[in-house]
Amino acid sequence: MAESETRLLMLIDDEPAQCRLVAALAAREGWRTVVAGSAEEALDLLATPECHDLAAILLDQWVPGEDACDLIRSLKSGRPAVPVLMITASASPLLAVEAMRAGATDYLIKPVAPERLLSTLRSATRAEAPKAELQPLAEKMPATLDFDAMVGTAPPFRTALAKAATAARGHGHVIVEGETGTGKEMLMRAMHTSSPRAKAPMRMIAIGGTSAGSIESLLFGHEQGAFPGAFDQQVGALQQCDGGTLLLDEIDRLEPALQARLAEVLASGVVRPTGAGHGFKIDVRIMAASDLPLAALVAAGEFDGKLYESLNGTLVQLPALRERAGDIPALTRYFLGRIGEQPGLRHHSIADSGLNLLEAYDWPGNVRQLQAVLFRAAVFCDGESLTAQSFPQLSELLGTMEDRAESRQRGLGVMLYTDDGNLRALEEIEADVIRLAIGHYRGRMTEVARRLGIGRSTLYRKLGDLGIDNAA
User: Fold this and answer.
1) What is the dihedral angle through the alpha carbons of 50, 53, 59, 64, rounded to the nearest 10 degrees?
2) What is the model's pTM?
3) Which end of the chain has fewer CB atoms < 10 Å from its terminal CB, N or C?
C-alpha cells in the first residue's frame, strides 16, 4: 500500500458532486486527487511541482475550455507517459475514436460504476509497465444480443453454446462460469433474447461494480425509513423483474448474508423489501455469472450451498480464449467487420503477419481483450490491412516469428497477404491450396481432386504448371 499512497490523480471536472464522488472512490485505493475546474486550470496545474509525480489524469468530456480532444493532446504533449482517461455521457464510438487518436488511454461511459472506475485506474497505472494496446478498453462497441454473435467452432465452445441454447428455451435458473472477458454477460443476454421471457422485464446488475451498501436495496428493495438515509421507497430488481429475467454478474462477489437471503427468496418465491411488513410473490428467472467455479467455492465454505443448488438448473462453462486458439482467425475477422461499421472507422482486413501475432498471444483478458486490441489497431491504421506493424507492443512482447508452420497447423491455413498487407498473387495462393490439400489427404490424389472440386487430369496439369511436386 505504500506505493499506492503516493499516487496522484488529476481530475478535470467542473461538477462538484462528481468531483467529490470520484475523489472518495479513488481514496479507497490510496489515490490523492487534485481537481481542475477547466482546461486552462488543468494545464496550469500540470506545470506545478505538486503534479510532478502525477500518475493519471481523468477528465470529463464537457470540461469548460478547449475541446476535450484538444485538451487530451495538450496534456499528452506535456506528460506523454501519464495515462489520460475520459468520462463521457455519449455512447458513440466516434467519440472514442477521436479521443484515442488524441492520446486517451481509455474512456468510460456515464453512469460509471465504482468498481469499473477503480479497475480502469488500476489497469492504466499498474506497475508492470502496461502495454496500452493490450489493455481491454472500459467501453467498446454496442453489444450484440443473439447467439449469432458468439463466434467459434472449438468443441468446448460449441458445447457450451449448445447447452446455453437448450437452456434458453426453458425457465430454469442458469449459472455461466468462465474467466473475465470470455463473454459471460453477452451469452446471458443472448439466452434471454432467445427465451420465452424475451419480451418480459429484464435487468442486469453488476455485483462487483456495485457497493456492498447499495446491492441489498438494488436486489430486494426497501421501505421509506427502513434505515438511515432511506428517504424514499425503492422497488428491488427481484420485484421489478417479476415474470422476467434478472442477470447477476459476478455472483461470487455477493456478500454471504445476501447470498443466504437470495436463497430464501428463490426457495419461497417471495421477496420482502427491507423494512417491509409483508412480502411479494414473484416469478423470476435468474442467470448468474461467475469468474470462479462456484462448486469449488461451496466446498471451501465461501459460497452458500443452498443458493448454488437453487441457481444450478443449468451450468454453462465458457472456455478461455487460449483454450480455443483456433477460433482467433474467425473472431478477428468478425470483430474487424463490426469495427468497420462504427462511425469514424473503416473496414480492415488482417494480414497473415498480424494474425500470427494474435494467435501466438495467450490473451489473459480473453475475447474482450482481443476485441479491444483490434479496435485500437483499427483506430490508428491508415492502410487497408492490419499487419504485424499494427500491433507494435505485441510484436515487442512476442519477438519476431520466422516460422509460421505452427499457425498453419492450428487452422490459419493459406496466407492471403504479404507482410506489407498486400494480397499475394492468385497463382501463389492456388499453389499453396494444392500443397495444403496434398499434405492434408496424405498424397491421395483422387481425394485431393474431389475435395478441390476438379478432375484428376486438371489437378495433374496444375501441378505441372505451378511446379508442384505431388509428394509435397
Assistant:
1) 30
2) 0.74
3) N
